[in-house]
Amino acid sequence: MARTPQPLLNMPDRVRQRARADGTLRVWWEPRAEHRALGFRAVELDAGRPDWCRKEARRLNAALDKALATGTRAPRAASRGSRIEDLIREYKSSPEWAPGLAPKSRDSYGKLLLVIMDKWGQDLVADFDKPTMKAWYQACYKARGVTMAARLIRMMSILFSHAEGLGWRAENTNPCFRMKLQTPAPRERNVSWDEYDALQAAAATLGLQAAGAAIALSMLQGQRETDVITAPRSGFRLVPVADKGETRPTWLWFLRRSKRGNLGAMPLHPEAVPFVRAALLPARPDDTPLLVDEATGRPYDEHLFAKRFSAVRAEAAKVLPACATIQFRDLRRSFGAHARAGDATVDDIEDVLGNSVASNAQLRETYLAAQFTTAARAVAAVQRPARKETKG
Q1: 372: closest CA among 352, 345, 343?
Q2: How far, in Å, are 129, 160, 278, 292 from residue 283 at the CA level?
Q3: What is the pLDDT of residues 343-360, one digit of tens each?
Q4: What pLDDT digit, counting tens, does each position of 92-102 carry?
Q5: Partner of 78 for a Cys bridge, out of 63, 89, 268, 270, CB 3.0 to 4.6 A?
Q6: Measured between alpha carbons, how far is 133 from 176 in angstroms, rounded to an integer?
Q7: Is 327 helix (H, G, I), strand (E, B) or coil?
Q8: CA 275/CA 252 separation, integer angstroms
Q9: Which of 49-63, 269-283, 295-309 shows the lowest mean pLDDT across its residues?
Q10: What is the pTM of this model?
Q11: Is the bond leading into 99 cis (omega within 30 degrees of zero)?
């Protein structure tokens, strides 16, 4: 039998409470029948936030008392309609949020939702129109910059699409559609081989072998930071692979990409193999991350790795000043540039980057999916340019 929840204490007038059959507590503000003629409707409150319930009930009571004293109708925000705050709560409790989004995406979206909540939390979902969103976009563009303005409008668009699914807005009424957002030019910074060598030398100087391995796995294998620093030891295996009629042991990286959830497999670049073998030498469980920070003895998280890469970059910049402008994500982009320079096709490169690969590929040691062949071509195409020999 469900346990009867304890009622919230010291609630203002017109707040009602009732235990549900599932053992939760329903709390709501309800005007009398004669008050409905003034436009007031029942408002659901959040039993998990007693202080907020009291504050919201007092606000509603004040609005009702003012309407009674002046003979006016309820202000729009005081009526029941679903608010942006309610919509955000619904969205974050839906499968679109979890497991629909990767943890890193949820963290990024969560920060945008805090901004939206602060600005629009008490406004009614049904009240928004395109001129309102256009005006806010222009204000954000001036105050927050082109990138943040576009991200906030796209986040609002996701919310309004979710509202349509809930029936809180009519179909095809998303006020953020076709707003012609300005977007910054894409970053085109590529890391040269000299800069890569400077980063690796700096990592070695600082005793940050794990950071050096991460740099190699991104530059030479084209993978995102999250997939590099969270890659389990079990994902790296020496596997017999048939090549031109011969079977030879080959180091492979098997992974499930964090952003899209798709599977991948690729051979390790010859320069990446020593980093992986060194990281595998200490005996640890197979399901633990390959890369472990030397100073703390624990696997990298996003913040710790950012600190280590920043240190490596600063050390490299002492020798090669151009390194100061490198971001870790530039290494993944550079993989594509170097693979293209080595005559890999766009399709081959995409199979390594993982942004156009079928998500249900079955990868086995004895039978590798078709993507493996194309990925292998792309990895093999990443070659250092031949050094010119001077005569004499």
Answers
A1: 352
A2: 59, 50, 11, 12
A3: 666 666 666 665 433 332
A4: 989 999 888 88
A5: 63
A6: 7
A7: coil
A8: 13
A9: 49-63
A10: 0.60
A11: yes
